[in-house]
Amino acid sequence: MEDKLIDKTAKQYNKYSLWLTAGLTLIVLMSISLNLITTDITIALAVSVIYTVVVNFAYGGLWKRVAKSAPNTLAKFYMAASTVRLIIAAIVIFSFCMLSQNKTDIRNFILLFFVFYLVMLVFDSVFFARTEKNNNLKTEK
């Protein structure tokens, strides 16, 4: 894959992941304002959004570096990055559980965090599967 296409793909990934995070956040905020969610989850929402944005931008930047320097190792990158993402998520959840005394807050945080994590995991899989498929189609021609 040429450098210009790699830069464009990384930029699209960052843009789409940011839009998806903003959309999820708006859905949660609308649910709160419409009283569909009656508990206070603003801290849980803030932590989930910050984690998602930071991890996605790091993931996009690292993908860009790996795609430019060693494109043959992208499969290993996907596995390693997913593992690191899971470990960081576990650390964030564990830290929140240690800092919070309220079991309801912990439960709500874990549920909300899991939704953000799962949506972004599916997004990453679909986005990079399409990227790799398109790349393979271009190299076969």
Question: What's this model, at a glance?
Answer:
The protein contains 4 helices and no strands. About 85% of the residues lie in helices and about 0% in strands. It is elongated, with a radius of gyration of 17 Å.
Features:
about 140 residues; mainly alpha; elongated
User: What form results from the Cα inertia axes?
Assistant: elongated
Tally of DSSP helical segments: 4
Q: Give a short account of the largest sheet.
A: none
> What is the succession of H and E elements?
HHHH
Determine the N-to-C terminus distance.
13 Å
Percent in helix = over 70%
Alpha carbon gyration radius: 17 Å
Strand content: under 5%
Strand pairing plus helix content: what structural class?
mainly alpha
Mean pLDDT over all positions:
91
Question: Which stretches are low in confidence, meaning pLDDT under 50 for 5 or more residues running?
Answer: none
